[in-house]
Structures are given as C-alpha cells and as structure tokens.
Write a structure and sequence with these properties.
Strand 25 and strand 26 form a beta hairpin. The protein is an alpha+beta fold and 668 residues long. The chain is globular, with a radius of gyration of 26 Å. The protein starts with 22 loop residues before the first helix and ends with a strand. The protein contains 13 helices and 26 strands.
C-alpha cells in the first residue's frame, strides 16, 4: 500500500467500522489534493498546468481543465464548511477567474481559451460547468469578491457555453449549469431560460426507466448516468429550490440508487465499466446527491460506507502520484483506461465525489455509525432491462459483476465498424477485473472466425429479461476488409445463481463449419503464469497456439481456471465447445500489467443443437472455489437447454419458443 503524500487523521473504527474514514478524513484529503495541484498554477492563478501528456485539446485547454476541476473541489470543500477557507484557496481561484477572463483567447500565459463548438474548441464548454457550479456554491466568497468589470467578463466568457453547439450527449447539461448560475446571481434572461429548458427537454427524451438515462441518443449507459445526467440537473434544482423539478427528477435518482448502490465492491471499488474511469471516486457523486436531496433508498451509514469506501479504495492503491497529483489511470497510470480527450487535469472530475462535503458536519451521513455496503449482504441478482444490465453480487466475497445485454457506445447514425470499445462491448464487467485492451484477446466475448479474422460485438439489442437473467442479440461485425457474411446474428443469454454464471449462445444464419470462440474473465497474473486445467491435451509440438495461447488446450468438458491474487476465474464448456485454452493478454488490464484470458472454441453445426453453445463461468474472491462441474450440468435438446444447478432448481432456456428466448423453472 503506497504512502499518501499528505497526512490524514487516524482511522476511527468506532464510528466507521468498515473504512475508518470520517468527515475529517474527507476534509484532509481535499486539502491535500488542492495544495498538491495548486503548486502547478501559473503566476496569475488562471491556469493549472499539471504534469503529463497533453490531451487532443492542447496545453492551454488542459490548463483550464486543471483550474476548473480543482476549483470545483475547492468549492465543495468551502461551501460545506461553510465558507471556511483557512488556507486562502478560494482567494487564489477568484484571482485566477479575474485574470483568465481578462483577455480570453490570447496566447499569453494566463488567458483562458474561448468556448467554441464541440470539436477542436469545445473542451472549454465542459470546464465552464465546473467554473459556474464552483461560483454558484461559493458566490459570497468568490463571485461577490470580483470587481464588477471582472463579473461582466466572467459572464461573457460563460455565455459562450450558451451560444455554441455541445456534443450530442450530457454536454447539454453544461449550458444548463452555466445558465443556472447566471440566474442565481441575477443575470438570467431569455438565453439562460432557453439553455435550461433545452437541457431538461433532452434529458426527458434520454430517460429509459429504472433510473437510467442514455448518454445521448442510443443506448449508452455508464457512470455518466450518475456523475452527470443525474448530478447536474438535480443539483441545479436543489440549489434553485425548484420543488417541481426536484419532485420530477428526485424519484428517478432514488430508483437509480436502488440498483447502482450494488455496484460498489466490499473493498470500495466501483464497477469498472464505461469511459472516463480515470474519474475514479466521482462514481460516488450520485450517492452523495441522494443524501443531499433526500432522494435515496440508503441509510446514512450505508451512504458513508459507499462514499468512504470508494475514496479510500483509490487513495490506498496509488491513484495519487508521489507529489499528490491524481494520475491518468485507474490505480496508477494506465493508458487503456484513457480516452483521446484525457489530459493531465481530466482525473480531477473525481472532485465530484466530494459533493458529499455539501452535507453539513451534523448530517446523519457523517454522524451515523457506518453500515455494511449493499454488496456485503445476501447474494443478489438484479435485472435492469432498461439499461440492459444484470447485476450479480455475492456476500461472501463482496464482489460485484455487471453483465451487459444492452449498453453500447454507438450513436443511431453511426455505422458498425470493428474494433469494438472494450469498455462497452464485453459481455461482463466487475469490480476486481478490467477488460483487456483492444489490441489483445478480448475477455468476456463471443466471436465468429472466418479466414483467421474474428468478429466484434457492437450494437447490442435487448431481447428478454427475467429476475436473474438477461438476453440480447447482436450482428457479428468483421473488420473492414474482412469477410462479409450476410444475415447472421448471435443471441446471448446470461443467468446467474450465487457466483455461478450460465452463458448460452445461439448462432442464427451462420454457415455450418464456422469457428466460434467464447472467453471468460481476464485475470491479472505475473507474466508467464500458466493456467490450471484438467484433462489437458497437448497442442501440436507443445508450442504456443495461434493467437498467443498457452501451450496446452483442454479437452471438451475440462475447466480452465485462473488463480489471481484477489480473484479466481473459471470457465467450463458444457455443450458445443470442443477445446479451451488460456490466452495471453500482454497489455494487461487496469488491475495488472499482464493477464490471462480463458477461451473456449467450437464449430457451428448443421442441426439446431449444433447452433447452441453452453458454458459455465465464475469470478470469485473466495479461496479454493469448487470446480464448476460441481455446480451445474446441462442437457441440450434442439434449441432448448435444461440446466440443473446443484441446488436442485432446474430451469430450461428455450431459444425456439419465439423471437426471444425464455427461461422456465422445472423443479428438481
């Protein structure tokens, strides 16, 4: 465990038996992070040029990003104190705002870039929301301290967000946030009203139910649902005292948190899924917002458990560099976690997690005894068909898995071109494993192979759902220049019981003889670690197989087992799979620099049963887990699979009953 570059109070395991963290720890962490970042401020305080490679937006935009996002952290810290700023930090940010807006667009050392349309000059629009929200929260100490001419210049700069085109997603909430601030200081007009109305109108169209918004048109569901699509409009409603808007949006947040609260591991980690994961403990923003607005299903002690668990999880695992700056990655630096828009200041959207400091010191979230996290309770299976997610938690190890049968990163007008985004296209994600990179063998994937080329999973169409299962369909996409096979699809179903995952795939229209591959959980391991297998059959010559697999293949019915430091991954073919192996992923995952991926291989057959492929999978933190063969068996008859778990509650998965599969329990 790395040593923190600043001091925190001693752990308090009486008030916080799970994490040891109290409000004092949050305040000390905020102060330490702010002091570390402000060392990189320009002389006029207008830009914070944090170390690291620039984003695609350029160094000046990155400097504004460093300023704006840390200003939001300072605002949460001061506003919840309230207004206590013993270090004079708000004065520095106020000076920076006055200097940065003095001559926007100039190439000097302090001037802020102007706000443009989404694209080359669009990033400042993102940062305008943090500036505006920071000013709104600290207006008595920042906005009111600005001379009138500086206020006018700041307003004019911010209005650039109202007059330019956002990206077609959560970006429309940045002008809403700017407009909300301007209204709050008496500078609202028809332009600000339009920005708020436009943002709220789009939000309605993106709402899919069960507390989930799509991030723009399409079916993109990820952490932006909590730290943007819920946070900005609901915090605006709270600060404005808009009871009608709170009554409309608040129950959605309550519903969202019923499921989302399960997506935090007992070790504090949020689910590793979707883009911008370098924002880390920003995942807790919606949890804190629920407590702030009163729209939460969580007890105060459980709320703090999730929030402090996430903060401590990352602080204990190297998220901060030796000089106290948030790194670009998950724990330490990790390139595959990043996007092209990621710059040195990007990780400071993690500041949103400090929204919890808006809760006053005497709030029950800070004074109640910490309770267990929802994932630490009984085993749970929760289907969220609105987003296409199936949540699976196990209380014995506190591990969380998220099975994806409906979220993908493509707009309705965008074509399907391989490769797929690893952060969206996989069948499953967890709190203790990360997806392999786009350049390595994909984990939790189903693919066809033709002429040595494999398909990608891009658009994912939900088919059906039950209490503990979800099904989806996708059109396998070969890379550009690869084979073209018309009118094919793969239907997939995942059903969970405890730690067990039953994975059933059906090919439709796929020519007989086509090779098919299915992979399980990627496990971070020391380089060169062999997989544990049973009934292994040596490959020709004992050498590595094509694609970089280990030198042995398992026979049909043999389990592939990967024992990592924190987890064990298991994969077992029950029907249709001929061989299995462990494939190297030398680029590793966010959880380790090198990994292995278990993979099954089969061949599409002529008759209906030859188009079905059944496997069992497991990811567990338990030590020495039982073989999967002890947990369930399967029998295939045509397009129906009868699965008999060891607990005796057999069920039939039937792909031949109509356009979508069905699941029926048939008893012991």
């Amino acid at each position: 465990m790395p040593e923190l570059p600043f001091l925190l109070p001693a752990d308090d395991h009486t008030l916080s038996p799970h994490t040891g963290y109290t409000r004092a720890h949050w305040e000390a962490a905020a102060d330490g992070m702010l002091h570390a970042a402000l060392r990189y401020a320009t002389p006029g305080q207008a830009l914070i040029d944090l170390p690291g490679p620039p984003s695609r937006s350029g160094v000046r935009s990155d400097g504004l990003e460093g300023f704006a996002r840390t200003f939001l952290l300072a605002a949460f810290r001061a506003a919840g104190a309230p207004g206590k700023d013993q270090h004079g930090i708000l004065e520095r940010y106020t000076e920076g705002i006055a200097r940065g807006t003095l001559t926007p667009g100039r190439g000097d050392a302090e001037s802020w870039p102007v706000i443009g349309h989404h694209g080359a000059q669009g990033q400042p629009m993102v940062e305008s929301a943090s500036v505006a929200l920071g000013l709104r929260l600290t207006a008595p100490w920042t906005w009111e301290a600005l001379p009138s001419d500086a206020q006018d210049r700041t307003e004019e700069w911010l209005r650039g967000a109202l007059r330019h085109q956002p990206a077609p997603n959560n970006w429309y909430l940045f002008p809403l946030t700017v407009a909300g601030f301007l209204d709050s200081v008496g500078r609202g007009d028809a332009e600000t009203a339009r920005a708020i109305e436009r943002g709220l109108g789009l939000l309605e169209g993106w709402y899919q139910g069960q507390g989930w918004y799509s991030d723009g048109d399409g079916r993109s569901f990820d952490h932006y649902n909590g730290w943007a699509l819920h946070m900005y409009p609901l915090l605006h409603a709270h600060l404005a005292g808009d009871g009608g808007l709170l009554d409309r949006l608040g129950p959605r947040l309550h519903t969202f948190l019923e499921g989302f609260s399960l997506l935090f591991d007992a070790n504090g980690a949020p689910i590793h899924h979707g883009r911008s994961l370098t924002y880390r403990f920003a995942a807790g923003a919606s949890v804190a917002l629920g407590a702030l607005t009163g729209h939460t299903p969580l007890a105060p002690g459980a709320t703090r458990r999730l929030l402090s668990g996430a903060l401590r999880h990352f602080l204990d695992r190297g998220a901060l560099t030796e000089d106290g700056v948030l790194s670009l990655g998950w724990y330490g630096p990790h390139a595959a976690t990043l996007q092209r828009y990621s710059g040195p200041g990007s990780p400071y959207w993690a500041s949103k997690g400090f929204l919890a400091l808006l809760l006053p010191p005497d709030h029950p979230v800070w004074t109640a005894t910490e309770e267990a996290a929802p994932a630490e309770g009984p085993d749970r299976a929760l289907a969220l068909p609105a987003a296409g997610f199936l949540v699976q938690t196990t209380g014995r190890d506190g591990l969380v898995r998220l099975h994806n049968h409906g979220s993908y990163k493509l707009r309705p007008w965008e074509p399907e071109h391989a490769p797929a985004d690893p952060l969206y296209a996989r069948l499953a994600y967890s709190t203790r494993t990360g997806p392999t990179s786009a350049d390595n063998t994909p984990d939790n994937h189903i693919a066809l192979e033709d002429r040595g080329v494999r398909t990608a999973r891009l658009r994912i169409h939900p088919l059906a759902a039950g209490p503990d299962w979800l099904a989806s369909s996708h059109t396998p996409a070969f890379p550009d220049g690869g084979p073209k096979v018309p009118s094919i699809r793969i239907d997939s179903l995942t059903l969970v019981r405890g730690r067990l995952e039953v994975r059933v795939h059906r090919t439709v229209g796929v020519p007989a003889g086509t090779r098919i591959h299915h992979s399980g959980w990627a496990v971070a391991l020391p380089p060169g670690t062999p997989a544990e297998t049973a009934e292994t059959a040596e490959t020709e010559g004992g050498a590595e197989t094509e694609g970089g697999a280990e030198g042995t293949e398992t026979a049909e019915g043999a389990e592939i087992r990967l024992d990592g430091g924190e987890v064990t991954g298991q994969l077992l073919g029950l029907h249709g799979w001929e061989t299995g192996t462990a494939v190297r992923a030398p680029q590793g995952t966010a959880y380790g620099p090198w990994a292995l991926v278990p993979e099954l291989t089969g061949t599409v057959g002529e008759d209906p049963s030859g188009t079905l492929f059944v496997a069992l999978a497991s990811l567990t933190g338990e030590r020495d887990p039982a073989p999967l063969a002890d947990l369930a068996t399967a029998e295939v008859n045509g397009l129906a699979v009868t699965v008999r778990p060891a607990d005796g509650r057999a069920f039939v998965v039937d792909f031949g009953a109509g356009d979508a599969p069905t699941v029926t329990e048939v008893g012991a």
